[in-house]
Specification:
By secondary structure, the protein is mostly helical. It has helices at 2-60, 65-81, 88-108, 113-117, 119-154, 158-165. The protein has a single domain, classed as LemA-like domain (de novo design (two linked rop proteins), Up-down Bundle), CATH 1.20.1440. The chain is built from six helices and no strands. The protein is rod-shaped and about 90 Å long. The relative contact order is 0.15.
Length: 188
């Protein structure tokens, strides 16, 4: 009987540890997906603000058509990139382009004092800055979640479970363009 216990007990303990590790991976992936959903929500809010911002600027700065078109095109590409089949790094590049366009658009507004004093424009700027701050915070949280998952996925003995079950690498949501790492400067 003791031989039976010596054989079965380690197998049961190993099975419990594998199940525990598997469940931790599942929980981490659910947390990563939830934080990504927060980023997507904030990106959607930003995408929704852009047409109003463009329309407001267009009313004052009609001859800035190139910048307005750049922002509109970048917004369309960013919206198109928010799909499950688009890799996160491609989504980040599309958002980089939108951030650059918004930065250019806000720089153009410096030449229009009447626009800068428009209450609707100031409100849109405020909302954009708040949204950019929330995107940055959500991105930091997402990247922390991915980093914790990746550390676990690569560390022994969790890497054995990850490899056996097929838990794959997750990519961080990183911005390459140093100018796009910060919210666009909004004059007050």
């Amino acid at each position: 009987m003791e031989l039976w216990v010596l054989v079965v007990l380690p197998v049961v303990v190993l099975l419990v540890l594998v199940i525990w590790s598997y469940n931790r991976f599942v929980a981490q992936l659910a947390s990563i997906d939830a934080t990504w959903a927060n980023i997507e929500g904030e990106l959607q809010r930003r995408h929704d603000l852009v047409p109003n911002l463009v329309a407001t600027v267009q009313g004052y700065a009609t001859h800035e058509r190139g910048v307005l078109d750049q922002v509109t095109t970048a917004r369309a590409k960013a919206i198109d990139a928010v799909r499950p089949d688009v890799p996160i790094d491609q989504q980040a590049r599309a958002e980089d382009a939108l951030t650059q366009g918004l930065t250019s658009l806000l720089a153009v507004t410096e030449s229009y004092p009447q626009l800068r004093s428009d209450a609707a424009f100031r409100d849109l700027q405020r909302q954009l800055v708040e949204t950019e701050d929330r995107i940055a915070a959500a991105r930091r949280l997402y990247n922390l979640e991915v980093a914790a998952y990746e550390r676990r996925r690569r560390a022994v003995p969790s890497n054995l479970v990850a490899g056996a079950v097929g838990f794959t690498a997750r990519r961080m949501f990183e911005i390459r363009d140093p100018a796009a790492e910060h919210a666009p400067h909004v004059p007050r």
